[in-house]
């Protein structure tokens, strides 16, 4: 029920709504719950037709970097 | 008086308008001597074991990326024959048309049917047309029934054996996802096309290669989840599937993320699964890879004698779960 | 900084190697635990992820999941579904609800069954679709049967805002929005509960901010780790819980940094506050009445409240689940689905007797479908 999925903003509309892309599937969603303007290329979370918030790119990259490190560390240990 | 551009009730009345519609549109498109005889029934010469199948098509919307109801109505029935190792030969075709349906659209659909027939060589040899008052049907429904000579006997779910390899012909879920994106109200936009296609050419080559095919099935409604579950129950075997081996294109993944679906529950219309002995599997995949629409063909799992009646999906990190039969109202009217 | 790709937001958080390595670290550290961890994931979306990705199979024996009351469809008491069916049965009423709701049986049948009988019931994927339905049917009364936790309430608030702005007088609301913190309190109020850690909801927290769980940490001295929805997120959160337990700490942590802030979405909170107030009490299927655990429309929007407009038509009789049903104990972590006498016998996903069997986010439903595969 609380399904909410990462998507990328690909088009801005005059009425304040945006078109987002989810792996090649595009749709227009409402921005009524945002107080900041979105830009093309932003990542957002979508829930039942609304943008819930902007995804913090730096935080996402930081997590991904951490995962890369722990996997690399493991591989290094295994190869040692 | 200008010719009507929409189907009228009189087009199904049995009189002059109906004769014209049938003569101009259907006979020209499906032209063959048996049909042209216009008898009450087609006279066929069938020898030996024959496969016989029927299917009705009510897809909404009628037109979608990668096909339309006409292409679907031919490919669907032809594929059912092919999956039994039968060469598709003769089809019947019944139209139920809603009053007011655009003639141009009907022409487009009929032409798609004619083009799709070319791919298997099957012929429409008899048919029926009904027009129902506005509101009594959703545009157009088509029924096709087909017969075909069984070229390779013995292909059956009961022939599936523990140890068999399970091959999937291509990436899954395209038809279901394409219909969903085409539906009014969802306002989705993507490049995704249905996999709708006639499978006889590739099946013909697999049969010609003399591979010991145990079972074949096209994964239509209910997706590969339904086929594999039907197989495991009917043959009383277990089926182990490697999740990472199942190809899924980005757009189908996108639709699944959006609506919380699983790709293996989504319908296909030109995707099939084969069970055959492990030692024949590589050869089968090699043949399939040469065909358009099968470039992703791959072995996705094996049949086992453990957990009979169940399909187990193994994740890339080693956890396992049952692959369930899809439940409930997934997508209304996909075929 | 490298550019982030959309695909990484999916695949990066489902990476098999990372999952395996986190599982290894959890196992390694769990050997130092002095007591077993019973962690409740409150959110049904987490239950779904945990079962779908088979995460319990990756954990050591002293770490247990307790699947909490976090699916809004599951916890809806039958009398509320009966009310939806009663609304749909009124002439010239169109009932609109999110898709998940229509399969769940009330005491008189599911909304899908009422639709088959001829009631005009329209499942939608997004609440704003109700606007169009109301605009296209000016002679009818359209009732939006609103469900969901804090995640989905702001979307109902926007629908209300739009209906007011457009003067759409034929759009009414039946509000069933529920709140996470009171449900946590209801679980912890039981002296016999085994729960000693929480995996905090992902998208509830996007709206509310992480701050709403501080009282939970303070009151019950349990770790709360807010987690993303993906399997790597959940595994990393479990590791964080085990670390806290081993170190004897009880803290609020936020694993889902990329989406959850301390304050949350303030616009959404303000809209929710504008239209809604807290009900005195709401009955949760499986848990019973919980004080101040749900929302209702504020008095100034009474003209849009279907519970007021159709008060005489709505059944109020409280419908309890089957006597043998143990959902209450399961939701509190006191019983396992397999302990229940009706589990898998009278109670299956096709014929659910209790809340935990109702949807794929419920504990019994997940057990029914996934257990026994190992």
Automatic annotation (TrEMBL), chain A:
Its GO biological process annotations read: protein maturation
Q: Which domain of life is it from?
A: Bacteria
Q: Which GO terms describe its molecular function?
A: carbon dioxide binding; iron ion binding
Q: Which family does it belong to?
A: Belongs to the HupF/HypC family.
In terms of InterPro entries, this protein maps to: Hydrogenase_HupF/HypC (IPR001109)
Q: Which PANTHER family does the UniProt entry name for this protein?
A: HYDROGENASE MATURATION FACTOR HYBG (PTHR35177:SF2)
What is the name listed in the Swiss-Prot or TrEMBL entry for this protein? Hydrogenase assembly protein HupF
**Pfam families in the record, alphabetically?**
HupF_HypC
TrEMBL record, chain B:
PANTHER family membership: CARBAMOYL DEHYDRATASE HYPE, HYDROGENASE ISOENZYMES FORMATION PROTEIN HYPE
**Species, as recorded:** Shewanella mangrovi
Which CDD domains does the UniProt entry name for this protein?
A: HypE
Query: Which residue ranges traverse the bilayer?
Result: none
Give the source's domain of life in one word. Answer: Bacteria
Q: Name one GO biological process term.
A: protein maturation
Per the record, the similarity remark reads: Belongs to the HypE family.
Q: Name it.
A: Hydrogenase assembly protein HupF
* A Pfam cross-reference name: AIRS
UniProtKB/TrEMBL annotation, chain C:
Q: Which keywords does UniProt give here? A: Iron, Metal-binding
Concerning Pfam families, the annotation shows: HypD
What InterPro entries does the record point to?
A: Hyd_form_HypD, HypD_1, HypD_2_sf
Tell whether Magnesium is among the UniProt keywords.
no
Molecular functions (GO terms):
4 iron, 4 sulfur cluster binding; carbon monoxide binding; iron ion binding
Q: Which GO terms describe its biological process?
A: protein maturation
Q: Which family does it belong to?
A: Belongs to the HypD family.
Q: What is this protein called?
A: Hydrogenase maturation factor
């Amino acid at each position: 029920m609380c399904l909410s999925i990462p998507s990328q903003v690909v088009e801005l509309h005059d009425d304040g709504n945006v078109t987002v892309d989810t792996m090649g599937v595009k749709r227009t969603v409402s921005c009524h719950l945002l107080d900041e303007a979105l830009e093309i290329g932003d990542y957002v979370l979508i829930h039942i037709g609304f943008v819930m918030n902007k995804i913090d790119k730096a935080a996402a990259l930081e997590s991904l970097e951490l995962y890369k490190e722990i996997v690399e560390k493991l591989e290094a240990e295994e190869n040692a | 008086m200008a010719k009507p551009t929409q189907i009228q009730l009189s087009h199904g009345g049995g009189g002059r308008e109906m004769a014209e519609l049938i003569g101009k549109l259907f006979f020209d498109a499906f032209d063959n001597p048996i049909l042209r005889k216009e008898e009450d029934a087609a006279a066929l010469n069938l020898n030996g074991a024959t496969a016989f199948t029927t299917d009705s098509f009510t897809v909404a919307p009628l037109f979608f990326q990668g096909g339309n109801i006409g292409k679907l109505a031919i490919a669907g029935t032809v594929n059912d024959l092919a999956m039994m190792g039968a060469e598709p030969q003769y089809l019947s075709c019944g139209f139920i048309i809603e009053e007011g349906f655009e003639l141009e659209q009907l022409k487009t659909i009929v032409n798609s049917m004619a083009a799709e027939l070319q791919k298997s060589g099957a012929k429409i040899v008899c048919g029926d047309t009904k027009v129902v008052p506005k509101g009594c049907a959703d545009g157009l429904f088509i029924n096709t029934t087909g017969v075909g000579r069984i070229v390779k006997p013995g292909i059956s779910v009961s022939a599936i054996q523990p140890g068999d390899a399970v091959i999937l012909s291509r990436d899954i879920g395209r038809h279901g996802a394409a219909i969903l994106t085409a539906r009014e109200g969802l306002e989705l936009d993507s490049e995704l096309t249905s996999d709708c296609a006639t499978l006889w050419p590739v099946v013909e080559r697999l049969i010609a290669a003399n591979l010991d095919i145990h079972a074949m099935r096209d994964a239509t409604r209910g997706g590969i989840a339904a086929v594999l579950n039907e197989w495991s129950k009917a043959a009383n075997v277990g089926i182990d599937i490697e999740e990472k081996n199942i190809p899924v294109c980005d757009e189908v993944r996108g639709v699944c993320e959006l609506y919380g679906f699983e790709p293996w529950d989504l319908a296909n219309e030109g995707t099939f699964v084969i069970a055959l002995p492990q030692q024949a599997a590589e050869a089968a995949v090699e043949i399939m890879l040469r065909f358009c629409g099968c470039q992703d063909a791959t072995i996705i799992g094996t049949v086992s004698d453990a957990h009979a009646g169940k399909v187990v999906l193994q994740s890339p990190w080693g956890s396992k779960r049952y692959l369930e039969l899809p439940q409930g109202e997934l997508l209304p009217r996909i075929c | 900084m490298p550019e982030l790709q959309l695909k990484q937001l999916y695949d990066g958080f489902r990476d098999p190697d990372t999952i395996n390595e986190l599982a290894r670290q959890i196992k390694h550290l769990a050997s130092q635990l002095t007591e077993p961890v019973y962690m409740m994931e409150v959110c049904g979306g987490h239950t779904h992820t945990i079962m779908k990705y088979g995460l319990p199979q990756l954990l050591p024996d002293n770490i247990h999941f307790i699947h909490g009351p976090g699916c809004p469809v599951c916890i809806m008491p039958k009398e509320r579904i009966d009310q939806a069916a009663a609304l749909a049965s009124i002439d010239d009423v169109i009932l609109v609800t999110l898709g998940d709701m229509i399969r769940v049986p009330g005491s008189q049948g599911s909304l899908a069954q009422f639709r088959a009988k001829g009631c005009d019931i329209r499942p939608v994927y997004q609440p704003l679709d109700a606007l169009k339905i109301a605009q296209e049917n000016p002679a009818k009364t359209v009732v939006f049967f609103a469900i969901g936790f804090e995640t989905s309430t702001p979307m109902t608030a926007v629908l209300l805002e739009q209906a007011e702005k457009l003067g759409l007088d034929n759009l009414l609301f039946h509000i069933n929005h529920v709140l996470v913190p009171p449900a946590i309190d209801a679980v912890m109020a039981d002296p016999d509960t085994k729960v000693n850690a929480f995996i905090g909801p992902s998208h509830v927290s996007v709206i509310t901010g992480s701050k709403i769980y501080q009282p939970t940490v303070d009151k019950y001295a349990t770790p709360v780790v807010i987690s993303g929805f993906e399997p790597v997120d959940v595994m990393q959160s479990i590791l964080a819980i085990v670390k806290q337990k081993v170190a004897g700490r009880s803290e609020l942590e936020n694993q889902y940094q990329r989406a959850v802030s301390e304050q949350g979405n303030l616009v959404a909170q303000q809209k929710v506050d504008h239209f809604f107030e807290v009900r005195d009490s709401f009955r949760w299927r499986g848990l019973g009445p919980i004080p101040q655990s749900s929302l209702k429309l504020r008095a100034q929007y009474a003209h849009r409240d279907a519970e007021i407009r159709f008060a005489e038509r709505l059944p109020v009789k409280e419908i309890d689940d089957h006597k043998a049903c143990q959902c209450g104990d399961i939701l509190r972590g006191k019983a396992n689905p397999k302990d229940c006498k009706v589990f898998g016998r009278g109670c299956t996903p096709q014929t659910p007797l209790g809340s935990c069997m109702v949807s794929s986010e419920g504990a019994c439903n997940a057990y029914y479908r996934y257990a026994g595969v190992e």
